[in-house]
Design brief:
The structure holds 2 protein chains of 2 kinds.
Chain A (H helix, E strand, L loop, with lengths): L5 H21 L2 H27 L7 H18 L3 H23 L4 H21 L1 H4 L5 E2 L6 E4 L2 E4 L3 H24 L1 H11 L1 H6 L4 H27 L1 E2 L7 H13 L6 H16 L6 H15 L3 H9 L6
Antiparallel strand pairs in A: 1-4, 2-3
Chain B lengths: L2 H33 L6 H18 L4 H28 L6 H23 L13 E3 L4 E3 H23 L1 H11 L1 H6 L4 H23 L11 H14 L4 H21 L2 H18 L11
Antiparallel strand pairs in B: 1-2
Helix pairs in contact in B: 1-5, 1-8, 1-9, 1-10, 2-3, 2-4, 2-8, 2-9, 3-8, 5-6, 9-10
The chains are: A mainly alpha, B mainly alpha.
Chain lengths: 320, 293
């Protein structure tokens, strides 16, 4: 990683946020809604990237963190009648606690075993959702009622079903997570994580506690994914067990690989591109899983660094 | 029926499950043991075997045994060929990097599943068993075909064991598994061994699928449960250990039937998956395996 003026990086990121803000006023209705969804899912990808890109831990179970946030927030609204901010906080808390527990257990393993263990825990989480169908709605899922999806700020109340409010809420969440990610990876802590990824033994020898640093990364990553899930439940009003299935553990991996692992903006680019590819092709064929499969293989074969990773390597060394 | 016969019936059904599971898991275990590749598409290769068995047996008219025998020979060969091509085109280019190959085999999983859905369709289709002889036990009659599955599986397992421990091919495979670089230095074509092992693993899954398809049905999503169960068996049995795999398959197959009698299948799956994850966390070498080097 080349050292560069931090100003350049911050200008770029603020520019991206400004661009997304401006797009809100020019995009046609359909793409406006799609982009709001993409921003929320890009947060999921950013959370995944935190662990996969920077610590080098490939998890195949991040759907459980996303759906912990999704169900944490959604069920708090549906069954307990909590307000939107309280439900969002509940979603975050569920994700953080789950990530802590899973982290303590799964980090005892490494490499292939880590992948399988995370996949199995996610499978258990998925089956638990199905088992408690009386509360979770099972594979049918539940709809979060429109009347409950209202954000009260002082005297004004904003309906989250309104497209503009929804877009702006997604943008606020996206911006916060993007800037937090940028700050984290530029911090001392971010460098320790990269050091662990590159050479764990040496980092340990230099006196860093690699286990607790990794555990912290799992919790941060899980919490960000839960934030995405909670926002998804509150903004789009649906919680369902599909979001806990293996497929939703694979998708963030695909998005991050495509956009570029260990780049701050890669997850957004990957999510944006893949979402549009699936959206466009589903007009012609229902076989979108085929495209996901082919994309995964082509990426690992020919393009392992992803879009931004390649750009950083070739031209822009300062890209965070 | 009294308790005794009931238990006997459950045990027989469990043994049939175990027999198929042992073959499938052995394929996964060989590929992991020798190549250090976790083949997530293994379940789809199993499914492909079943779907091909249906296609072949319906294409051949005449006595059902003819179609079944043709399927038993041809389906594994075709699946092995497909695996061979996938290995050459994808896995070899990735240098068998464990993480990259997992991502790539996930890709294969989606591709095979989607192609099966497109060309075979969403229906579940049966294959006629080659013979329908019922063996009369004192309490109930039992399908002779199911017993022959157990026998066929046992035969194949013994054959695999023989090849692995008593032949030159097995020696070469074990040498590659033990230390591929040294094996290469001694003139073993490691590259070709890998290709062969990957194809062999796929063929074992396909054979298992052809055997099971007359009593279950061919369906494009049928690969998911065998994949998870095979993972469980391979982990419990110790990665890459043949004896452990067989013992674990019998254990899982028998207990799967008995647990599902007492608990809901979902709860049984939750408990089983959680237990296996814990085994992997606290005893990564498996219950029967020895500590890895």
């Amino acid at each position: 990683m080349k050292e560069a003026s931090p100003a350049k990086a911050y200008v770029l990121h603020l520019g991206v946020i400004a661009l997304l803000f401006a797009l809100s006023f020019v995009l046609p209705e359909y793409h406006h809604g799609l982009l709001a969804r993409i921003m929320v899912l890009a947060v999921f990808a950013m959370g995944y990237n935190m662990l996969f890109g920077y610590v080098g831990l490939l998890s195949l179970g991040h759907a459980m963190f996303f759906s912990a946030g999704l169900y944490g927030a959604g069920l708090a609204v549906i069954h307990l009648g909590w307000s939107v901010p309280a439900a969002f906080a509940a979603g975050l808390a569920c994700g953080a606690v789950l990530a802590l527990v899973i982290g303590v257990l799964a980090l005892r393993t490494s490499g292939v075993a880590f992948m399988i263990v995370t996949m199995m825990f996610a499978q258990v989480f998925y089956l638990i959702i199905l088992y408690f169908a009386a509360w979770t709605g099972g594979d049918q899922g539940l709809v979060v009622p429109q009347s409950a999806r209202v954000l009260v700020l002082g005297d004004t109340s904003l309906g989250l079903t309104n497209p503009t409010v929804r877009y702006m809420s997604a943008l606020v969440l996206f911006s916060i997570v993007l800037l937090v990610t940028l700050a984290v990876v530029r911090s001392r802590y971010g460098r320790v994580l990269v050091a662990i990824r590159e050479n764990e033994e040496r980092t340990k020898m230099l006196g860093y506690d690699t286990f607790s640093n990794r555990l912290a990364a799992v919790v941060v990553s899980g919490t960000i994914c839960a934030a995405s899930g909670a926002a998804y439940a509150l903004l789009f009003g649906y919680v369902g067990s599909t979001f806990a299935s293996v497929q939703y553990s694979i998708l963030p991996l695909l998005w991050v690989l495509l956009g570029g692992a260990a780049t701050t903006l890669g997850p957004l680019i990957g999510t944006l591109f893949m979402y549009y590819v699936v959206d466009v092709t589903s007009g012609y064929t229902s076989a979108y899983l085929l495209i996901v499969g082919i994309a995964l293989i082509l990426l690992v074969l020919f393009f392992p660094k992803g879009v931004l990773g390649t750009i950083r390597q070739r031209w822009l060394g300062w890209l965070p | 029926m009294h308790f005794g016969p009931h238990l006997l019936l459950a045990a027989l059904e469990g043994l049939v499950t175990s027999a198929v599971l042992a073959l499938t898991a052995l394929g996964l275990s060989l590929v992991f043991g020798v190549m250090r590749v976790v083949n997530v598409a293994h379940g789809e290769l199993f499914m492909l075997g079943a779907v091909l068995a249906w296609a072949i047996s319906t294409a051949i008219s005449g006595h059902p045994a003819l179609g079944f025998l043709a399927a038993l020979v041809l389906a594994p060969l075709i699946v092995g060929l497909i695996a061979l091509v996938a290995e050459r085109l994808v896995l070899r280019r990735l240098n068998y990097n464990p993480e990259a190959t997992i991502v790539a085999t996930i890709g294969m999983l989606y591709i095979i599943q989607q192609l099966a859905l497109t060309f075979y369709g969403p229906e579940a289709r049966p294959v006629e068993p080659p013979f329908s002889y019922r063996i009369l036990l004192p309490w109930f009659g039992y399908s002779g075909y199911k017993l022959s599955i157990i026998a066929a599986s046992a035969l194949l397992l013994v054959a695999t064991w023989f090849v692995l421990t008593r032949t030159k091919i097995g020696l070469v495979m074990r040498a590659t598994q033990y230390d591929s670089e040294t094996a290469q230095a001694f003139g073993i074509p490691v590259d070709r061994v890998y290709a062969g092992v990957f194809a062999l693993g796929a063929m074992l899954a396909a054979v298992a699928a052809v055997l099971i398809v007359p009593i279950s049905q061919a369906h494009y999503l049928m690969g998911q449960d065998p994949l998870l169960l095979s993972f469980i068996v391979v982990i419990i049995g110790g990665l890459g250990s043949l004896r452990g795999t067989v013992v674990a398959a019998v254990l899982i197959g028998l207990s799967d039937g008995i647990i599902s009698v007492f608990f809901s299948p979902t709860l049984a799956k939750i408990i089983a998956t959680l237990l296996v994850a814990m085994v992997l966390v606290f005893r990564p070498q498996g219950l029967f395996g020895t500590a890895s080097r």
